[in-house]
Write a structure and sequence with these properties.
CATH class of the largest domain in chain B: Mainly Alpha
CATH architecture of the largest domain in chain B: Orthogonal Bundle
Radius of gyration of chain A: 28 Å
Strand content of chain A: under 5%
Order of helices and strands of chain A: HHHHHHHHH
Helix content of chain A: 55-70%
CATH superfamily of the largest domain in chain B: RNA polymerase sigma factor, region 2, helix turn helix motif
Order of helices and strands of chain B: HHHHHHHH
Number of domains of chain B: 2
Distance between the termini of chain A: 72 Å
Largest interface: A-B, 58 and 60 residues
Largest sheet of chain A: none
Helix content of chain B: 55-70%
Shape of chain B: globular
Radius of gyration of chain B: 18 Å
Oligomer: heterodimer
C-alpha cells in the first residue's frame, strides 16, 4: 500500500515539512494505519543508524602510512614538505594553546593518577589545575598558571625522588626555561615569525614531557 | 570539575596540541592523531565504499591529512576537519574509479539479495550488512545523513545533485532498510 503521503514520511521524520504540510500529514496519520506503522519503522531505521558504532581496521595501518610519509619526505627537499613549505597558519595564541594543552594534559594526568591513590596523604601533584582548567581563562594566562602549578607540584614531590634525579631535572628545566624565555622575547619583536612560533611550541612541549615524566615517577613512588 | 569532564577537556586539548605539532612535521604527534581517529575514518570509508577498499582509502585519507595539515586553522575541531577530508577522499575515489553503477535507485526492492534477519538491538551487524547492499547513491546519502549527520544541502553539494535528489535517495534507502529488516 502506498499513498501520496508515504513518500513524505522521511521529511516528516526529519522535521522538513512546513507547518501546513505537517498538520495535514498528522491528520492523515490519525486515519491511516499503514502510514502510521511505516512512520514508526522509519524512525526505527533512523535510530538504528544513529546508534551504529565505529570499529578499528582489522590490521594496524600506521606502519604503511608512516612508510608512505617517509617516502614522501625522502622525495622532497628538507623544508619542502607539503604543508610545511607554506607559511605556518597557526597564530601565536593557537600555538600557545597547543602547548598549554599538553601542559594541562600532563597536570591533569598526574592529578588523576595521584587522586586515585586514596592512601596518599601528601598534597597531590596537580590539584591546582583541577580548579584552573576553565574555558574562560585566556590561553596565555593558562600557560603561566599551569606551569607554575606543575612546578610547585614538582617541588612538593621532589622528596620522593633521589637527589641525582632532582638535580638533573632542575638543570634541564633551567635550560628549557631559558629557551622559552628567549623565544618569547624574540616573538615580542617579531610576533609573526613562523620559526619562532614553532620553536616556542616545541620547547614548551619538551618541558611538558619532562614534567610529565617526573610527576609520573613521583606518583609511582608515593 | 567532574573527572569525566576533565578527561574530555584534556583529550580535546591534547588533540589540538597534536594537530599543531603534526602540522610542524611531528610524525609522532600525527601517529597519536591517527590512533585517536582511525576507527571513525575507517568505518566511514567502509560504509561508503566496498569493504575491501577500506584499508587503502583510509591510508589515503591520513596521507592527505598529513599533506594538508597546514590548511587546518584550528577554527573547527580536528576531528571535524579530518572527517570532512575523509568524505572528500571517498567521493573523489568513487569518481576516479568510475563507480557510477547503481547510483540511483530505480526499483522498489534494492535489498532483495540481502539475507533476511529479524530486527533486534543486538543485531546491528545485520543492519550494517543491509546497508552495504544498498545501491551506491542511496548508501552514500544514507550514511552521510542518518549516520554522519550531514544536512541535505551539504550532501547535495558534495555529490553534485540537488537537495531534492538527496531527500529522495534517503527516503528510498530508509524504506529499503525498513522493508528488509521487517521480514
Amino acid at each position: 500500500m502506498n499513498d501520496q503521503w508515504t513518500n513524505r514520511l522521511s521529511e516528516y521524520v526529519d522535521g522538513e515539512l512546513d507547518s501546513t504540510e505537517r498538520a495535514t500529514l498528522e491528520a492523515h496519520l490519525a486515519t491511516c494505519g499503514h502510514c502510521y506503522a511505516t512512520l514508526g519503522e522509519l524512525r526505527q531505521v533512523v535510530a538504528r543508524a544513529q546508534s551504529l558504532s565505529n570499529s578499528e581496521p582489522e590490521s594496524d595501518l600506521w606502519p604503511d602510512i608512516h612508510a608512505r610519509l617517509t617516502q614522501d619526505a625522502a622525495r622532497l627537499t628538507p623544508g619542502r614538505r607539503p604543508g610545511v613549505s607554506r607559511r605556518f597558519s597557526f597564530s601565536v595564541p593557537q600555538l600557545l594553546a597547543a602547548s598549554i594543552a599538553l601542559v594541562l594534559l600532563s597536570g591533569g594526568g598526574a592529578w588523576l593518577a595521584l587522586e586515585s591513590r586514596q592512601s596518599t596523604p601528601a598534597p597531590t601533584v596537580a590539584s591546582a589545575p583541577r580548579t584552573r582548567i576553565t574555558r574562560e581563562a585566556t590561553w596565555t594566562g593558562r600557560t603561566d598558571v599551569a606551569i607554575a602549578d606543575l612546578q610547585t607540584a614538582l617541588t612538593q614531590n621532589e622528596s620522593r625522588l633521589d637527589t641525582a634525579t632532582v638535580r638533573i631535572v632542575r638543570q634541564n628545566l633551567a635550560i628549557i626555561d631559558r629557551a622559552i624565555a628567549d623565544a618569547r622575547i624574540a616573538l615580542q619583536k617579531d610576533p609573526g615569525n613562523a620559526y619562532l612560533n614553532l620553536h616556542l611550541a616545541n620547547t614548551m612541549r619538551r618541558k611538558v614531557e619532562l614534567l610529565r615524566r617526573v610527576n609520573d615517577m613521583a606518583a609511582a613512588r608515593s | 570539575m567532574p573527572r569525566q569532564v576533565l578527561e574530555d577537556t584534556l583529550t580535546a586539548d591534547s588533540i589540538a596540541a597534536d594537530s599543531a605539532l603534526a602540522a610542524s612535521g611531528d610524525a609522532t604527534a600525527f601517529e597519536r592523531l591517527y590512533r585517536t581517529h582511525v576507527a571513525r575514518v575507517h568505518t566511514l570509508v567502509r560504509r561508503m565504499l566496498d569493504a575491501d577498499e577500506a584499508d587503502d582509502v583510509t591510508q589515503d585519507v591520513f596521507i592527505r591529512a598529513w599533506q594538508k595539515l597546514s590548511t587546518f586553522r584550528g577554527e573547527s575541531a580536528f576531528g571535524t576537519w579530518l572527517h570532512r577530508l575523509a568524505v572528500n577522499v571517498v567521493l573523489a575515489r568513487r569518481k576516479s574509479v568510475g563507480i557510477e553503477r547503481g547510483r540511483f535507485i530505480n526499483g522498489p526492492e534494492p535489498l532483495e539479495g540481502v539475507t533476511s534477519r529479524p530486527v533486534t538491538p543486538e543485531l546491528s551487524i545485520d543492519f550494517e550488512e543491509a546497508l552495504s547492499n544498498l545501491p551506491e547513491g542511496a548508501r552514500q546519502v544514507f550514511v552521510l545523513h542518518d549516520v554522519e549527520g550531514y544536512r541535505h544541502e551539504e550532501i547535495a553539494r558534495m555529490l553534485g545533485v540537488v537537495p531534492g535528489t538527496s531527500k529522495s535517495q534517503l527516503h528510498h534507502a530508509r524504506m529499503a532498510l525498513r522493508r528488509h529488516l521487517d521480514r
